[in-house]
Design a protein that fits this description.
Layout (H helix, E strand, L loop, with lengths): L4 H20 L7 H11 L7 H4 L27 H13 L5 H6 L7 E2 L5 E5 L4 H6 L6 H12 L8 E4 L19 H18 L3 E5 L1 H8 L5 H4 L4 E3 L2 E6 L2 H6 L3 H17 L6 H4 L7
Parallel strand pairs: 2-3, 2-4, 4-6
Antiparallel strand pairs: 1-3, 5-6
The structure holds iron/sulfur cluster.
Length: 286
């Protein structure tokens, strides 16, 4: 039986730390400030630590200050997925399945964000800027997507963004701009995205533009048929909406509102709180 608050605290903490050690498959870590708080809590006033001094040595578990390497998420839990995602990332980044794209690309664009997210955005393919920076949606369309994500009360770090095609579609020599991925290219690359979705396990996928819809569903559809309607990607609810590049070309309130209404459906599906202000975005002023 323990005979001091200190030993009671140790007896309480030890099994928790051992469980953490087992679940994490390694030593638990703590931030420097947590360790400092723990140390100051165990430095009781003079005389009150005498029981601790008389304690038999207890098994110690190494703890070291460590930065948090992934953003916190309500859905986060490492059941080995992180290691499998790292392995998948390594394989994707060294993929050479499309010789023409390997020859023209600067780098493979794997995707960005929280690997344990509830919300996944899927676009079509890296453009020139994404190819140079190695991150999807970093050009003007990407900046607009970041604004949409912010209006939904998320950050880019909390969700995940990926593309159907992971390499920039090649362009004829001397021709600038970007082209749409070909169906055969999408079919070749799609298993990578399918594997990512399998491991990330999002609760909702948003397909940005018809190419993303076609890539995910494996058949062409029309925006009139699918936008704003729930589809299904292997059991994951799929919401098709316009690509942000479309909104840059069509900057009317009505088109912005259509995309926003799709995002409201996504927020409702995820059970996120929606403020009156959010509900009113892009409505015509009376
Ligand atoms: S587009 Fe996809 S399948 Fe083709 S080389 Fe790039 S990563 Fe590999």
């Amino acid at each position: 039986m323990n005979d001091s608050p200190f030993s009671e605290a140790i007896a309480t903490a030890l099994p928790i730390l051992q469980r953490m050690k087992k679940n994490l498959r390694g030593a638990p870590t703590a931030s420097r400030s947590s360790l400092e708080r723990l140390l100051s809590a165990t430095h009781l006033p003079d005389g009150k630590n005498s029981a601790a001094k008389n304690q038999k040595p207890v098994e110690t578990i190494p703890m070291k200050p460590s930065p948090i390497s992934h953003p916190p998420s309500p859905a986060s839990s490492d059941d080995g997925r992180l290691a499998r995602l790292e392995e998948l990332k390594h394989n994707i980044l060294s993929c050479t399945r499309c010789p023409n794209l390997v020859a023209s690309r600067t780098q493979v664009v794997y995707g960005v964000g929280n690997p344990f997210t509830e919300l996944l955005f899927v676009g079509e393919a890296p453009g020139e800027e994404e190819d140079l920076r190695g991150e999807p949606f970093v050009g003007k369309a990407g900046q607009l997507l970041t604004k949409i994500i912010g209006a939904m009360d998320y950050t880019r770090e909390e969700i995940f963004i990926a593309n159907i095609l992971k390499c920039r579609p090649d362009m004829p020599a001397g021709v600038s701009g970007n082209r749409k991925p070909k169906p055969a290219e999408m079919a070749t690359c799609l298993p990578w995205l399918a594997h990512q979705i399998d491991l990330i396990k999002p609760k909702v996928i948003v397909a940005l533009g018809l190419t993303a819809v076609e890539g995910l569903l494996g058949e062409p559809r029309t925006m009139r048929d699918v936008r704003g309607k729930w589809l299904d990607y292997h059991g994951v609810p799929l919401m098709p909406t316009y690509h942000p590049a479309y909104l840059l070309r069509n900057q009317t309130l009505a088109e912005k509102r259509k995309v926003w209404e799709d995002m409201l459906l996504v927020l409702e599906r995820l059970g996120r709180p929606i403020s009156a202000k959010q509900r009113g975005y892009f409505l015509e002023k009376e």
